[in-house]
Amino acid sequence: MSTPPVAAAGPRPLQGGELALGTVALSLATFMNVLDSSIANVSLPAIAGNLGVSPTQGTWVITSFGVANAISVPLTGWLTQRFGAVRLFTASVLLFVLASWLCGLATSLEMLIGFRVLQGLVAGPMIPLSQTLLLSSYPPGKAGMALAMWSMTTLVAPVTGPLLGGWITDNLSWPWIFYINVPVGLGAAAVAWRIYQKRETPTRKLPIDTVGLALLVLWVGALQVMLDKGKELDWFESGQIVALGLVALIGFVVFVIWELTQDHPVVDLRLFSRQNFAFGVATLSIGYGLFFGNVVILPLWLQQHMGYTASVAGMAVAPVGLLAILLSPVVGKNIGRVDPRALATVSFCVFAVVLWMRSHFTVQADFTHIMIPTIIQGAALAFFFIPLSAITLSGLTPDRIPAASGLSNFVRITAGAIGTSTVTTVWDHRATLHHVHMVEHVSRTDPGAAEAFDVLGRAGMGMEQAAAQITRLIDQQAFTRAADDVYLASALLFLLMVPLVWMTRPKRAAAAPADAGAH
Description:
Helices cover about 75% and strands about 0% of the residues. By secondary structure, it is mainly α. It folds into three domains: about 1-210, Up-down Bundle (Growth Hormone, Chain: A); about 210-265; about 270-519, Up-down Bundle (Growth Hormone, Chain: A). Helix 9 (about 145-170) runs antiparallel to helix 15 (about 310-315). The longest helix has about 40 residues, at about 400-440. It is globular.
């Protein structure tokens, strides 16, 4: 995802106030970018209600950003060489500010999705270039410290996102989750340009694989629309879904063939011939897709079926970053001494335990029981990204690191968007099945149902009101059981990934991968 660090042959490291200001500006841009991938999660019900769509349709607000971001990430290397790292970074931040402002002004779901796509597209170069410029600011001996500081930013943002998103939704209105990017982005762009404009990287014209890029947009876009519209259109009973599936499949096959035969491919698929890269990307992407999908349904369940406000739902989700922030420096410091496969195995097992704990949630679960697994999950995150990034880039020569980093992050981000669509669809489908099974017993002849109607009748409810109340309680039970099903299945999948990661043969030299924190 990132371009090679310019510190090796670039200008001298920064010092004093310029170093501090430059670090803050680059970190703020990264923070803003990562924040936008999580801040909308707890606001989805409010956004969906305001725009007159279902919460399931509202998940497009998240997935559209993720897919657009995934498509633009592989272009970072080419764009950097064409326009220069500093110009590209500054332009990316300013365009991100513009897209954020437009998101806040959206008056329909279609408008919001369109502006989120724009936001995702222009956000692609921001994270890798902030990392590249930060490394050029520090002497080589302090590169590890610079990466550790940069990684902390990417871990603080997911903690802040749900809290900030919940507070804004409850106390202001959902457009402000996008408007807050405007002052932050303008400040970061202004400071970064003032400090780094004299440190621009060399530029040169390179051919762009326009056919490969078009095929990439085609098959990824078709796949995402198919996943998002599948339930609404009854999946492959719909001609539209069948058509989208064929476009995605054929587009992907043609894309693979085309990229493998090009001298300057937009995505270097030959990297998958390396065992460490192939299995490292597979485990990183599957794990991230499972994690991100489960992160989305938790606040939806809390707000739609447990009566939580956006603020309280945010508080239940936010602690996921606490242990990650505390343990990540420890993992990073020891990654060269401990087998990264063992560290990744710890992560998968902790994820499985956390999801197993969540699979026992009931409608009586209190705030403490809901938050405990979230806190523990932070430890899983600390042992997840850094070791798997080290494995993925292990054994690669420096000139192949940028392409490998870009491709691994492209697959991971796409997997996150696919995971969100898949998990929400499965959750809804399982809830429907549970609802059908439970209403089979609701009749005037069923003793339990008769007693419930009698109790509600004595409380002053008419037959229709009592029926509506019972339906709401059944829905609550159905969606809770469906969430439990998703959590249990996800726990089993994490355990199945353990043997997958041991198929790799990492070298200890991969202790400090270029994108260890890029998540």
